[in-house]
Each structure stands twice: as C-alpha cells, then as structure tokens.
Design a protein that fits this description.
The chain has about 220 residues and is mainly alpha-helical. Helices cover about 70% and strands about 0% of the residues.
C-alpha cells in the first residue's frame, strides 16, 4: 500500500472515530477516554508533521480503525446507519466551511489561542482531554460551524443531550470530526473513494491494526 493510502485511511479512521464518539455520548452518556482524548487533541495539531502526529500516534485511532476494518468489510449492526450519517454530515459541513475563508481564518486564530492557553493547564491525570479544552472547542463549534447549513442533527437520549457537560463533549467531538474530514480531503480523499474503495480501506485498516498489535507484543517482550 502506498503511503498516501495509509495516510488517507488514518484520516478516515479519525472521522469514523468521532462519529462513534458522538453516538456513544448521545446514547450512553459516555465515550472511550483514549479515543476521545486523541480526537480532541487533533484539533490543536494544525501544523503537525504527519497524519500520525495529528492524533498523537496511530494507537489513538484504534477505535476508528476497528470501525473501518469491520464496517467497511461488510459487518453491520443497527447503529451503523447513524454512524455513516454523522460521517457524511461532517464531510458535507467541512465542504461548506471551505467556502467560508473568513470563518476558516477565525477558527485558526481561535485554535492558535487555545494552543497557547492550554500550555498553562496541567494535563488530566488519566490522560483524558482537559475539561477547559472541551469547553473552548464546544464554544467555538457553536459560534462557527453550527451556524452553517445544514446543521448536524444528533440523535440520542434527551437526558444525556440536555446535560451541559455531555453536550459540550458532543460539540467538541463534532469539531474534531470536521478536522479529520478536512485532513481526509487534504490528503486526496473523497466520497467516491469511500463508496467504491470500501474493501481496500478496510484491508488497510486491518494491516495498520496488525502492525499495532505486533508493536505492542514486541514492546512487552
């Protein structure tokens, strides 16, 4: 597999991962802590040297890679339609953002400010995303991306979605999804590749996961 295909697969895994996080938060009121932290931190990595670095390493994309491996290879369950809906909605919103250069510049300035401010906060003890960062990204999403149409409609339990902390996490995860959608397109990805190249993407995700497992075993030895 070419490097470019590997990079696109990682970016797509980032997008699917955020869709799964949104679904978990909206329906279960929780999310995988490592996956959520990797996705949220990716928003700050606007000048990262590689796709892997955007997510703090390939291990941070394990949830997204597992989704690509199983779902694009044909394994489905009732919740998959919702995940795909979120993925396509985030791709569409990212394309709308490309037509708004002023908004892009405003977002970049706010993210750079968040980068500077987060240097003064101690990281969370469990390696999770800092609540202050979640709050900032949720606020930025509300003031920018959520003003574009069509808005992303999140389905779930009203008790969870009505919780301010969970709602902020949902918005921050959607923001991270737009970041991955931007990266996917920047690396040459498009909807036709997703529709027609499903098995190839699934196979590449499986290969990356196998490499992760091998590396973990080697480290343990």
């Amino acid at each position: 597999m070419s490097v470019s295909h590997t990079q696109r697969t990682l970016a797509l895994a980032g997008l699917f991962q955020t869709a799964r996080l949104v679904q978990q938060l909206a329906r279960e009121g929780r999310s995988d802590a490592q996956a959520f932290a990797a996705s949220i931190q990716s928003v700050l990595a606007i000048d990262a040297p590689s796709t892997e670095a955007v997510y703090g390493g390939v291990a941070g994309l394990r949830t997204g890679l597992e989704l690509l491996r199983h779902k694009l290879a044909g394994e489905t369950d009732p919740g998959d339609i919702e995940i795909v809906k979120y993925v396509l909605s985030m791709m569409q919103l990212e394309r709308r953002l490309q037509r708004q250069p002023d908004m892009q510049e405003a977002i970049r300035r706010r993210i750079e400010a968040a980068q500077s401010q987060m240097k003064f906060f101690q990281p969370e003890g469990d390696g999770g995303a800092h609540p202050r960062l979640i709050e900032k990204l949720a606020e930025l999403y509300t003031q920018t991306l959520s003003t574009l149409t069509p808005r992303i409609m999140v389905n779930g339990d009203h008790g969870y979605l009505g919780n301010p902390q969970i709602a902020a996490k949902v918005r921050a995860a959607l923001f991270a999804g737009i970041r991955s959608a931007f990266l996917w397109r920047q690396l040459g990805g498009n909807r036709w590749q997703l529709l027609l190249g499903r098995k190839r993407i699934a196979a590449e995700a499986a290969r990356i996961l196998a490499d992760l497992r091998a590396a973990r075993i080697a480290t343990a030895d």
